[in-house]
Specification:
Largest sheet: 8 strands, parallel, barrel
Helix content: 25-40%
Shape: globular
Radius of gyration: 26 Å
Distance between the termini: 78 Å
Structural class: alpha/beta
Bound molecules: (2R,3S,4R,5S)-2-(hydroxymethyl)piperidine-3,4,5-triol
Number of strands: 24
Number of helices: 17
Strand order of the largest sheet: 4-5-6-9-10-11-12-13
């Protein structure tokens, strides 16, 4: 054996022994459900992915140096970055692991986790990441055919050769992760990217048409709540105007489900798919959105056809508050953990991380957060240089040091969140005998007016019956003994000027008093006491500005 190899083997075995001695074997990350709540378990405990997704072409040795400084600036704990099939399998059956290995090694150097995005058969509805040798054989690795018989820029879910090639490549990739990533740097894998088809509702190839005219599979009927009487009926007969999108979703989900299952069989890492959404408030007719992907109307078809996919995840590029909130509500289901793998990084949207945490999100990741593009509005202006990162950096600066506690409290059902909605300056979070009153734009003693821009947000977790962990930005938080349901509905949730939040319970007034308001900082996921707040800092509630602040608050009544 060469001396370098001997050294490497010795080093590897001593690292292995050291890890073993410290009991530091890393279990495979897994998605755990308890009592309708989900958590991603990493190293045996709930973990919240505070992510950032790189630009599509950033995962190259030449560009990764422009990614890590952004990740560091953001305080992100997870980088989402692609693996390109065209790079991974330059010749049929020959796999090039160099890119996977380099991003894993560099992530470890920067102490962040990875979510790897398998840009395989589908990328934004097209097949642009198929290797050249596949692109050069379009008859074999076929495209979708539209109603007029034209080939479309989208892969056919009925292309058996493409399916087999993707299964083989994805399996090789997952097998490599299994061997190369005992540290579990990689937390999850996205299978394909924004699957489906733009420009046509489905594949109209002869093979597809035959299946479309045939009976709807029993599992689809069941998933879509159809009665057994529908058995044997065609897609058109069962679903009418939705028949073609449902059919395409079935075909795409079946294909992706097989790719996912093949990879999961060799390495059971949590897997997810991301969705290009349709309008959640006023969904247009089929054809106005990408057909076939996991849009909200076909989530149950995806669940039935692709059980190896753990999470169906929305890519949310919506600035409308009601629309954003509707989307997270639609994707937070008893059978689906909420995970936002792509979203906007704009100032007004940053509060939606908190909305997502209110639904026990396992992760969140704005898109395009690296320095491969010049984001400087004015060349040379250092402030403008990071403007695209700042809203996310502010969120993560607050949450990253307490990430494990947030994830644990959320999994235990003890955490609630608030995010400001335009025209609604106050809201209540209910915690058994206490209500947390969150308000925005509460200047001094005056009533809450809302912030000039809806950017307020808060997290409140119940630590004991009368003790809460509280944090947030540009908001006021106070506590009131929980009143009757009627009082709650009255909407009078913020006490009048100078008044103490109170409630009349069983004919007797009960008033809140702060026993102790501790300000602290989180270090190594532990709250460290700094000082007691009192006087002007607590007399009109607990006021949060733009500085990260964490409070531990004990309350009582008199
Ligand atoms: C959604 C896709 O999933 C991403 O890969 C990227 O193309 C963004 N759109 C671009 O905005």
């Amino acid at each position: 054996m060469k001396s370098s190899i001997i050294a490497a083997v010795l080093a590897a075995s001593s690292i292995g022994l050291a890890l073993h001695a410290q009991g530091k074997e890393h279990p495979i990350p897994r998605l755990v459900e308890n009592d309708g709540r989900f958590a991603l378990f990493v190293d045996g405990a709930p973990f919240l992915m505070l992510g950032a997704q790189s630009n599509n072409s950033s995962d190259w040795p030449a560009t990764l140096p422009k990614v890590w400084p952004a990740i560091e600036y953001l305080h992100a704990n997870t980088l989402e970055t692609p693996i390109y099939w065209e790079q991974f399998e330059p010749k049929p059956g020959q796999f090039d692991y160099s890119q996977v290995d380099s991003v894993i090694a560099q992530a470890r150097e920067h102490h962040v986790h990875l979510v790897l995005l398998w840009f395989g058969t589908w990328k934004n509805g097209s097949q642009h990441y198929m290797p050249e040798w596949m692109k050069l054989e379009p008859e074999r690795y076929s495209h979708v055919t539209n109603k007029s018989g034209e080939l479309v820029d989208s892969p056919s879910p009925f292309a058996t050769a493409s399916l087999e090639a993707d299964k083989r490549a994805f399996t090789a990739f997952m097998l490599h992760l299994k061997d190369a990533d005992l540290e579990r740097t990689v937390l999850m894998v996205q299978v394909e990217n924004e699957t489906g088809t733009w420009g046509t509702l489905r594949d109209y190839s002869p093979e597809a048409n035959k299946l479309f005219d045939g009976p709807v599979p029993a599992e689809v009927l069941k998933a879509m709540g159809q009665t057994p009487a529908a058995l044997g009926a065609s897609w058109e007969q069962v679903f009418g105007p939705e028949a073609e999108v449902n059919f395409h979703a079935w075909a795409v989900a079946k294909y992706v489900g097989q790719v996912a299952a093949a990879g999961k069989a060799v390495y059971p890492l949590p897997l997810y798919v991301n969705a290009a959404l349709r309008d959640p408030l006023k969904p247009g007719a089929p054809g106005t959105y990408e057909s076939g992907g996991p849009t909200d109307n076909v989530l149950s078809i995806w669940k039935a056809e692709a059980p190896a996919i753990d999470v169906l995840a929305p890519d949310i590029y919506m600035s409308n508050t009601a629309a954003y909130l509707k989307v997270i509500d639609l994707y937070h289901r008893p059978d689906n953990a909420l995970f936002i793998p792509e979203t906007s990084s704009a100032v007004r949207e940053a509060r939606f991380l908190f909305s997502a945490l209110g639904l026990q999100a396992i992760g969140y990741s704005p898109f395009g957060l690296d320095y491969t593009r010049n984001h400087s509005a004015q060349p040379g202006d250092p402030d403008a240089q990071n403007a695209f990162l700042d809203p996310t950096a502010q969120n993560y600066g607050l949450i990253a040091p307490m990430m494990r506690d947030i994830a644990r409290l959320n999994f235990e059902g003890k955490l609630q969140a608030a995010a400001e909605v335009e025209g609604e300056p106050a809201e209540i979070l209910h915690f058994g005998k206490w209500d947390a009153l969150v308000s925005y734009g509460s200047g001094g003693r005056g009533p809450a007016k809302g912030n000039p821009e809806p950017v307020g947000r808060a997290l409140v977790a119940q630590l004991k019956d009368n003790q809460f962990l509280v944090t947030g930005y540009v908001c006021r938080v106070d506590f009131r003994p929980a009143g009757t349901e009627q009082q709650r509905k009255s909407g009078n949730i913020v006490a009048g000027v100078g008044q103490t939040p109170s409630a009349q319970i069983d004919g007797k007034w009960q008033h809140r008093q702060f026993l102790r308001v501790e300000e602290g900082v989180y270090k190594n996921d532990t709250f460290r006491f700094m000082r007691i707040l009192n006087g002007d800092q607590t007399d009109w509630g607990l006021n949060f500005g733009f500085e990260p602040e964490v409070l531990r608050v004990s309350v009582a009544v008199y």
